Amino acid sequence: MRRLFGSVRARATLGATLVVAVALVAAGAAVLLSLRSNLIGEAGTQAERSARAVAAELAAGTPYGELSLDVEDRPVQVVDEDGRLAAASDDLERISGTDTDAVTPRPAPAGEDPGDGDDGDDDGDDSAEAGESLAPGGIGERTTFANGSATLDGDTEDYRFAAVPVRTPAGDGFTVYAGAPLSAEHSAVRTALTAMLIGFPLLLGVVAAVTWLVTRRALRPVESIRREMAAITASEDLARRVPVPGTHDEVARLARTTNETLAALETSVERQRRFVADASHELRSPIASLRTQLEVAAAHPELLDLDGAVEDTVRLQRLAADLLLLARLDAGERPADTRVDLAALAREAAAGRTGVTVRAEAVRVTGSRGQLERVLVNLLDNGQRHARSAVEVTVRRAGEHAVVEVADDGDGVPEADRERIFERFVRLDAARSRDDGGAGLGLAIARDVAARHGGTLTVRAAPAGGALFELRLPLARP
Predict the structure, then answer these.
(1) Residue 221 has pLDDT above 90, yes or no
(2) Domains identified in the chain and CATH numbers
(3) DSSP state of 409
(4) What are the phi and psi torsion angles at 108 (to 5°)?
(5) CA geometry: angle at 415 spanning 409 and 417, to 5°?
(6) Which of 56, 129, 413, 421 fits a disulfide with 165 by CB distance 3.0 to 4.6 angstroms?
């Protein structure tokens, strides 16, 4: 059961079915209440019509014995002001819901027939008149209603009773009670309730089935994406892509985003593989050279090239430091939150270098002093390696950014290679770079550090014809 309702399709079907069920119950209750109210109102209208017909006869002075009390086989009572039953339907055997449960009229005192009576000065009010004062021969305007039951000729039913006050021409006050059967109301409500009890479950079944099929169709692409992702995970083939449905909905966007993630992951893994391969290749040369020199020295101490061994060791140390820094940058290491004066940093990096001039104004940025110094050192090393005679460093403010420009008077960088030189282990002049101890990591490290500090590093042609590297970083906040 838990596994079943762990499915999105099952939860969606259950949710839709519950919502429709609540709506159907609410609508069904409203329909039943409205139907019952309307039918009770109709029965009340019929009862009032019968009661007013009898009241009209009393108001006209009709004697008890001539009143139309048995029309349509409905229970009728005529009650006087003292609560005494003056007249009733012939077949009435039992009654409830009126002011009296009497079914047999009491004999009226002599001379108190509706056509006779006293001089009309009796101003007594029946309780059914609810304070309404009637003139002789008048019929009350207000009708009161109540539910009850009655037995007529052995048949017991529920009735809606209407009570109408009336005064005879002689001034005697009466209340006429007449009932209309509620059997039609009961039958209609039972029929509607039966239809709902049968129809609602069927309708809910249809809703559940349709929701199940629709969600199955809607989630089919998601299942295809899941299967393909499972296959990619099992095969470790990041070149594969999940199928993208032809729709323009959230599932299609999910598939496209998944493919973009796979592409980024494939690029990252491929970059990592190249990085490991290139690092292994670059480490192999100084290690092999150092081992050779040590083996020769072990066999022939007089042939030990101490300077060469130290140079290889330093080269190996620098390469290890570069690889360690790249690893930290790839791991997402956040730079320190230190205020750094780029002008002072540029002068320190250029100190002792031949042919390097610095023109700088004081600008401050926030970041890691060591990493930013590494960027400047790498740019100066690159500039001196390719310059004919001079390298110029400029530090200035440009809007909300600090700009460091390192320009040389060398041959420059071809436009087609201006992005490639920032890739790791890329050397446009591989032989010279290796002889100088470079591994093609300096510019890659510089750009990564710039990106970690929220800045950019680009290259373009310098005014003197060489290369101009521009480092742009956000200014430190006051």
Answers:
(1) no
(2) 1-225 (no CATH), 250-330 (1.10.287.130), 338-474 (3.30.565.10)
(3) S
(4) -75, 145
(5) 95
(6) 129
